[in-house]
Amino acid sequence: MAENTPLRIHHLRPAPGANKSKVRKGRGEASKGKTAGRGTKGTHARTTNTPGFEGGNVPLQRRLPKLKGFSNAMFKTTYQVVNLDRLGELFPEGGDVTIEALIARGAVRKKQPVKVLGTGDISVALNVQAHAFSASAKEKIAAAGGSVSEL
């Protein structure tokens, strides 16, 4: 290169010895000597393992169940849970508790069934409408002078 020629990106080259050619293992004695670059003994010195071999662990295809079995997940009903103590906080004066009132106060979300559970106590009479109730919730609501109606 002449001294007044600027250095360009296409003039750059790797340093000598920086790029070595890939070792072609297992291609006979001419490539890397007696063991062809594979060392002595062991799994990698011989042919490769079968696909799915996990080093002696039980393979994935044997760990998973052979048959499908029964799963009702597609038709499973998942309830939003509201406890009695939460109802007592949201409705301290008592009155009617509907799904719309619970949605308006941020206790549940729209378009999902609601189940009332009996955790906690209530002291006011509530007329509760929900999709499902636990037995203890029904007892505690009735004991407080309220009523229960399922949708």
Summarize the structure.
Part of the 50S ribosomal subunit. Keywords: Ribonucleoprotein, Ribosomal protein, RNA-binding, rRNA-binding. The longest helix is centred in the last third of the chain and has 9 residues, at 135-143.
Provide a descriptive summary of the structure in words.
The structure is a single chain. With 151 residues, the protein is α/β, with parallel strands linked by helices. The protein has 2 domains: 23-65, no CATH class; 80-150, Ribosomal Protein L15, Chain: K, domain 2, CATH 3.100.10. The chain contains 5 helices and 6 strands. The protein has helices at 29-32, 60-63, 84-90, 99-104, 135-143, and strands at residues 80-83, 95-97, 114-117, 126-130, 132-133, 147-150. The strands form 2 sheets. A 3-stranded parallel beta sheet has the order 1-3-5. Strands 2-4-6 form a 3-stranded parallel beta sheet. It is elongated and about 95 Å long. The model has no long low-confidence stretch (mean pLDDT 91). Part of the 50S ribosomal subunit. It comes from Streptosporangium sandarakinum. It holds the Pfam family Ribosomal_L27A. Belongs to the universal ribosomal protein uL15 family. Binds to the 23S rRNA.
For the structure shown, list the relevant keywords.
151 residues; single chain; 2 domains; Ribosomal Protein L15, Chain: K, domain 2; elongated; 3-stranded parallel β-sheet; 20% helix; alpha/beta; 15% strand
Gross morphology is elongated
Oligomeric nature of the chains: single chain
- How many domains? The number is 2
Which range does the strand content fall in?
5-15%
Text of the CATH class of the largest domain: Alpha Beta
CATH third-tier fold name of the largest domain: Ribosomal Protein L15, Chain: K, domain 2
Q: Give the integer mean of the pLDDT values.
A: 91
Give me the number of helical elements.
Answer: 5
Q: Describe the largest sheet.
A: 3 strands, parallel
The low-confidence runs, each spanning 5 or more residues with pLDDT under 50, are none
User: What's the SSE pattern?
Assistant: HHEHEHEEEHE
What order do the strands of the largest sheet run in, or round the barrel if closed?
Answer: 1-3-5
Count of DSSP strands: 6
Structure class: alpha/beta
N- to C-terminal separation?
A: 89 Å
What level of helicity do the residues show? Answer: 10-25%
Q: Which CATH architecture of the largest domain is right? A: Ribosomal Protein L15, Chain: K, domain 2
Radius of gyration: 37 Å
GO cellular component, one term: cytosolic large ribosomal subunit
Protein name: Large ribosomal subunit protein uL15
Family: Belongs to the universal ribosomal protein uL15 family.
Keywords: Ribonucleoprotein, Ribosomal protein, RNA-binding, rRNA-binding
